[in-house]
Amino acid sequence: MTRSRLLPDNFTLTLIGVVLLASFLPASGQVAIGFGWLTNIAIGLLFFLHGAKLSREAIIAGAGHWRLHLLVFSLTFILFPVLGLALKPLLSPLVGNDLYMGMLYLCALPATVQSAIAFTSLARGNIPAAICSAAASSLFGIFLTPLLVTLLLNVHGEGGSTLDAILKISVQLLLPFIAGQIARRWIGAWVGRNKNWLRFVDQGSILLVVYGAFSEAVNEGIWHQIPLWELAGLVVACCVLLALVLLASSFLGKLFGFDQEDRITILFCGSKKSLATGVPMAQVLFAGSTMGVLILPLMLFHQIQLMVCAVLAQRYAKRPESVAELMGQVDP
């Protein structure tokens, strides 16, 4: 039996299970400290492997499409934050102040890499441009996200300055990534052959961070602080935000004269936010029990964007591949 694309994937179900585990069996005391060290090591390994997997040839192939990249970056780092601020009269009463802060954090994040490229490929968009745009968004996000978080949330990263936050993220995320790029010449082929099981490093590091964050939040009474109606409002808020960005991506792609393949790339690269990058960044930028609340909108938005984009990608994939094919469908 074929599994419906509207159903959550196995990782999302595991993510929900980890939140439930942390809700009933949260880590505390020395266990939580040791868990934090393990999480930091896993995050470093995650970005090391990202660096080893990313092909410089693929980046160069798509780097020349500067108009497309500029539009995608504008959607990711300008439109999202502007919408987050503009929708405050709607979102803040709907989800409460704490979850609204999480929505603003979501708006400050870079785009996804793997899923944006996968959906672009499925929809037959401009794959080299998608690879370049998604990868560059992830790298620029290391510097832009702390700045946007400072501007939007007035948070400076565990009591330091914005520069301190950028430095911490650079040490914990960028340096392992650069090390992975350097090591690619020796381990790149091995990483490529084993990418199917190495994805569990990606997923495992996220699960570790989520468990640690929610453990601390549960110990501080997160589920007593957030009423059920605010969680329901969060679903509505995420759907509204995603719908607005999808509409803007489609409209602007047509307005600036991009062809169909480029518009597909803009749609899937400009409308997505990265769970894989956002959760580790939250580990650096936010301290204490607030982190669990702040990443909750990101976790929910991640699942909604996957379900919606899966439907859109399937729809684009069914379009005729050429004018000749289209004519062939019309002719008797």
From TrEMBL:
Keywords annotated in UniProt: Membrane, Transmembrane, Transmembrane helix
One Pfam family matching this protein: SBF_like
GO cellular component, one term: plasma membrane
Coiled coil start-end: none
Organism domain of life: Bacteria
Keyword Membrane annotated: yes
Transmembrane segments: 7-25, 31-49, 70-87, 99-119, 131-153, 226-252, 264-286
InterPro entries found in the cross-reference section: Na+/solute_symporter_sf, Put_Na-Bile_cotransptr
The protein, known as: Bile acid:sodium symporter
Species the sequence originates in: Pseudomonas protegens (strain DSM 19095 / LMG 27888 / CFBP 6595 / CHA0)
